[in-house]
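Practice record 12: protein with GN1.
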Amino acid sequence: MDIKSIIAQFATEGELLSVKPFGSGHINRTYFADCGEKQYVIQQINSGVFKDVDALMKNVFAVTEYLNRSGSRTLTFIRSTDGADYVTAPDGNYYRAYEFVPGSVSYDAADTPELFKKSGAAFGRFQQQLGAFPAETLTETIPHFHDSSWRYTNEFVPALAKADAARKTACGDEISFVKQHCDLFSVLTPYVNSGRIPQRVTHNDTKLNNVLFDSLTDECLCVIDLDTIMPGLALFDFGDSIRFGASTAAEDETDLSKVALNLDYFRAYAEGFLSEAGATLTADERRFLPHGALQMTMECGMRFLTDYLLGDHYFAIACPAHNLDRARNQFALLSDMLRKQNEMQQIIDSIK
Ligand code: ADP
Ligand code: GN1
Ligand code: MG
């Protein structure tokens, strides 16, 4: 359906002047709509990924209204002209709208460790702001999202059986890599089961481009992409940020000699994150922060590989081997992280 007639169904202000595709997320289809005095973000929600759009939007409204009430800056979602949380188009696609944050920018890479440190503080603060949010009122929008062992058994292994033969042959080395490293997925199990690493309300998708910065001052304005806010582990929020933002290369860089963990960026992020969330972390959460980075990198690589094996139905791709390129990249990053595990630990221990 025509995006302009979708926008007309939301209670936006002003007259639509222009609309264009926007952002670099892998999941939803995002548009920027200029309505003169106000600008909006319109998103086609990926309902293949989010099976219960109704519950997803209830979560998003509940979290943003909660943050607003407590004075924390967050996204402002706009209801449809007839008061619904989202719009269903005649073709069955779902759309939502929220205000574009004026003067904001998001980054796919941090030019300086200082900028990356600010994103660490933003995600640490976000976790604090949701510390008292009633977790039981949230629907799990993607069940088992960071249950890496579950993903291994229930997604990766079945994908090996179902995969197209040519694709499977193309990634034999990567399949072996996953099998060799899947023991990383069970390291935390006893700590989680005993409560020494507690479940908290977490963001679960803490990529650098899920934070908005002020385009003039580079101060963090707010955390976005609120679709995966669910009970989860603090050290996975930490780890996923490191996976994406402390790599020396983009997530889909194919020259693997460029892919490494930048320890200066690791330190910067850890300082930012711990300055806001450090006081509430248990000793075990803190100790396993580097493991969070290892596990999120390994899990993400396995997810990319699974999607490649199954024909690219989950992540948006720009070329046929995109998911395989991303998987190889994540495994190269993981290999470097394993080499630098002691240094990561020393950095965490040195931050008071
Ligand atoms: P996805 O799930 O596809 O990652 P996001 O909600 O993260 O969707 O949106 C995709 C991208 O659009 C973000 O990474 C960011 O670059 C941009 N973006 C989204 N919302 C805003 C906003 N309110 N203001 C500025 N940029 C935004
Ligand atoms: C997706 O939506 P986006 O692009 O911010 C994915 C994350 C992955 C990431 C890899 C809902 O994040 O889990 O880590 O791609 N989001 C979802 O870049 O699956
Ligand atoms: Mg995103």
